[in-house]
Amino acid sequence: MTSAEEAPGTSRPDDQGSGDRGGSKISRRGLLGGLAAGFVALLAWTWSRLSFPLPWSSDDPEPSVQLPATEQRTVPPDPTTVPGPPASELGQRSPFEAPRRETWDISSGTPLGELKGTVTPADLHFERHHSGVAMIDPAAYTLLIHGMVERPRSFSLDDLKRFPSVTRLCFVECSGNFQRNMPEETPPHRICGLTSQSEWTGVPLSVLLREVGVRPDATWFLAEGGDAAKMARSIPVEKAWDDAIVAYAQNGEAIRPENGYPVRLLLPGWDGNTNVKWLRRLKFSDEPFMTRWETARYTVVFDDRRARQFMFALDARSLITSPAYPDTVRPGWLEIQGIAWSGRGRIERAEVSFDEGGTWHRADLQEPVLPKAHTRFRYLWRWDGGEATVLSRAVDETGYVQPTVRELVEARGVGSGPYHLNPITGWRLRPDGTVVFRTEEWG
To answer: Is residue 152 reached through a cis peptide bond, with omega within 30 degrees of 0 on the bond before it?
Structure first.
């Protein structure tokens, strides 16, 4: 059978037509080409509508809102009528939201009063440095583990990432996270802004201990940082076997440089200074190393000249973040909000007082309530517009109750040093609605 005699309904791969309709033939290839051309034209039109900096036509009314000078885009009067910008490689905060840390030379405080939930954005995590932020090439990074071990070894960053990882949410807090005798014009981050919470990911230190074969008689290890200060602390081995992590990720991304990139030691619930950043060396021994960071620094000397050394776990404390200075409030129902945390476990309860600690009312804890983690609390209170004081205190699962200033002074003395101070704090509400810090003299 010739090609002209092929049965109806059959076709060949090179067939150019699909039948006679009104005397003209529409080729399949031509149809597809026309559709493609139409799609390209539609795409071009759409892209022209999405182009910036003019996201709407010149006939539209002028924008009613202008963004800050640092932001080039403008806000249309009705965003439902104008396509927004296309997808980008890196997300940004809304230009209307601009939280910032306050810096104090060697440290910066998390703006606790501006945050919600319990996870601190990585770029707002507090900082504390002893010799500036170390800049380390991850390709050249190594972690040396030696001393009283059977198999001393140096691990690259890739080596560490090959081990099974864990992730946990916990806070980090500087042990000097409180200043005494502060003025009334003190916002929350100046009271105790040297604490932040992140989701940390890394390899359990216990895994590395098994890898190098830590000897049974090793009771301490030295954790040394790779910054110019070579900051180093002696840590009991028990903590390494418990919940210590060699962390390389923070909130789903690589740790930020100011928080220890590429690797830091994470000791949940312990003094922030022991969570050594830019970790470069772990040396195991049967005694502490007595570095200057645990002799001349980070040791509490009491008034009677006794000293308390190796203070590790951070005691329970709380902070009301709203209302707080410089807020202004109105009489009526107010929701008291704040955070509570403890380095010894979960928060059992958070309480508030409106009569200088005479009576305490149990606040609601906001889930999740995790061990060694910031926990949100709330309490609904009706303010009558008169002079009032609002205090908070935390109680952890061990039964420890956050102390008053007087109790701390009785236990340690007036000049006991700046570390591990966790007194009850609060705010005064004045009849004009202004909120100021409740000052208290330390003697």
So the answer is: no
Quick check: 369 and 394 in contact, CB under 8 A?
no
Please state whether 252 falls in left (phi above 0), alpha (psi between -120 and 50) or beta: left
Cα separation, 288 vs 294, whole angstroms:
10
CB 192 within 8 A of CB 237: no
Calpha distance 313→419 (Å, rounded)? 12
Encoded tokens for 404: 């008053």
62, 75 in Cβ contact below 8 A?
Answer: no
- Copy the structure tokens of residue 227: 């910054």
Burial of 264 (0-12, 13-18, 19+ CB in 10 A): buried
The residue count of the chain comes to 443
**Secondary structure of residue 31 in the 3-state scheme:** helix
Q: Is the pLDDT of residue 331 over 90?
A: yes
pLDDT in tens, 248-297: 999 999 999 999 999 999 999 999 999 999 999 999 999 999 999 998 88
Question: The domain 102-302: what is its CATH number?
Answer: 3.90.420.10
Return the ∠ at Cα 373 (arms to 372 and 377), rounded to 5°.
Answer: 125
**Residues 206, 186 contacting (CB under 8 angstroms):** no
Summarised one tens digit per residue, pLDDT across range 110-156 is 999 999 999 999 999 999 999 999 999 999 999 999 999 999 999 99
Paired strand residues for 279: 225
Dihedral-angle region of residue 251 (phi above 0 means left; psi in -120 to 50 means alpha; beta otherwise): left
Tokens linked to 158? 């890739």
Give, in words, the CATH class of 317-437: mainly beta
**What CA–CA distances, in Å, run from 346 to 244, 340, 375, 396?**
17, 10, 9, 6
Q: Does this model's pTM top 0.85? A: no
Question: Which candidate, 252, 259, 152, 243, places its Cα nearest to that of 203?
Answer: 243
Give the CA count within 13 Å in the CB-facing half-sphere of 26: 7
Q: CA-CA distances (angstroms) from residue 438 to 188, 329, 410, 424, 425? A: 12, 16, 20, 10, 7
- Amino acid of residue 389: T
Under the phi-then-psi rule, with left for phi > 0, alpha for psi from -120 to 50, and beta for the rest, what region is 24?
beta
Q: Which sign, positive or negative, has the C-alpha torsion 37, 41, 43, 44? A: positive
Domain boundaries, the chain: 102-302, 317-437
Q: What's the rounded Cα separation, in Å, for the pair 206 and 22?
A: 81
